[in-house]
Amino acid sequence: MYFRFEKLEVWKLAREFVVEIYKITRKFPKDEIFGLTSQLRRAATSILLNIAEGSDRKSDIEFRRFLRMAITSLEEVISGLYVALDQDFINKKEFDIIYQNGNYLVSKLNALINSLKL
Predict the structure, then answer these.
(1) Do residues 18 and 44 touch, judged by C-beta distance below 8 A?
(2) CA 31/CA 44 separation, integer angstroms
(3) In contact, 38 and 53? CB cutoff 8 Å
């Protein structure tokens, strides 16, 4: 047996994105553990959880709503990464890689949203 979300490409991509965020935030200063580190990890995890939660809703309209929430959480992560870049917690190359992966994930989420019935 499996859960519906486990078959979704966007869920798999979001899971990889969470791993990236956890890896990059391990380098952050220890005094950020309850600040930016925690915020980025929670927002990244929220992407994954919203996809999973929405996948079992009884209508495509509800699923779309959760996918949009996943996108807003991803946008929160990207904004937080700008803070990390500005504070020299990450370098431009690290930022660019995660930014590109986030942008790809958003495009896949939007494609899934557009494929669902209104």
Answers:
(1) yes
(2) 20
(3) no
